Amino acid sequence: MAGNARIAGGQVTISQRGGIVGRATVGAAGFRLSGRVGRYLVVYAESVRIDGEVGGDLRIAARSVEIGPDAKIHGKLIYRSPHPAKIDPAAVIAGRVTLSS
């Protein structure tokens, strides 16, 4: 998808074949990224799994946060969750990881 995107839905997936060139904001019950977001990504969801690429900062507010082994985050990861994020050691995060209050 070219440009920026605002997406809302029950289960939202950006697959390996999909992507957003610019910025994205997502509100969903469940969100999964296997594709690419070119700039920053903001997600509000119950559960989030990132296994794709984010070209800038990633901000998440979710009950559960998983960063998989194929994740590449070229900026900071800032998240708010009642549980610690599960971050695979193979994931690449260029900036700081911050649990915000």
Question: Major sheet, described briefly?
Answer: 7 strands, parallel
- Provide the structure class: mainly beta
By DSSP, the count of extended strands is: 12
**Distance separating the two termini:** 32 Å
Structure write-up:
The protein has 101 residues and is mostly beta strands. The protein has strands at 5-14, 19-20, 24-33, 36-37, 41-50, 53-54, 58-67, 72-73, 77-80, 86-87, 92-93, 97-99. The strands form two sheets. Strands 1, 3, 5, 7, 9, 10 and 12 form a seven-stranded parallel beta sheet that branches. Strands 2-4-6-8-11 form a five-stranded parallel beta sheet, with no helix packed on it. The protein is globular, with a radius of gyration of 12 Å. It starts with a strand and ends with a strand. The model has no long low-confidence stretch (mean pLDDT 95).
Quick gist of this model?
The chain has strands at 5-14, 19-20, 24-33, 36-37, 41-50, 53-54, 58-67, 72-73, 77-80, 86-87, 92-93, 97-99.
Write out key terms for the chains shown:
mainly beta, 5-stranded parallel β-sheet, 12 strands, 58% strand
